[in-house]
Amino acid sequence: MSFRFGQHLIKPSVVFLKTELSFALVNRKPVVPGHVLVCPLRPVERFRDLNPDEVADLFQATQRVGSVVEKHFQGTSLTVAMQDGPEAGQTVKLQKHDKEEEDSPALWRSEEDMAAEAAALRAYFQ
Prior knowledge:
This protein has 126 residues and is of the alpha+beta class. It is built from two helices and five strands; from the N terminus they run βββββαα. The strands form two sheets. It has a three-stranded antiparallel beta sheet with strand order 3-4-5. The protein is globular and about 30 Å long.
């Protein structure tokens, strides 16, 4: 199965949860430990483009992922955010990033590090 996040093709090794309509992956440039992404399986440009079943699945997956992230990273609180549209800070969309230098592979975590974190989180869902 292939996964897409905007214009990015996501390797299955970094995905730690797949539901009927959503998936969760580790972040290649996490802001804090436990910074992960939960995405709809069907690529859409905006939140409003999701159908009600997709919205329900996305939020149920987010709730499950949040519980696991708190447990795994020994947290006591979560920040759940959605950037929906360019003025909200959304940079992943159907076209390429405007500022490629900010998305340089030199700034990313290694695929091995990401796969290891995904494997650790995946274990909670099995």
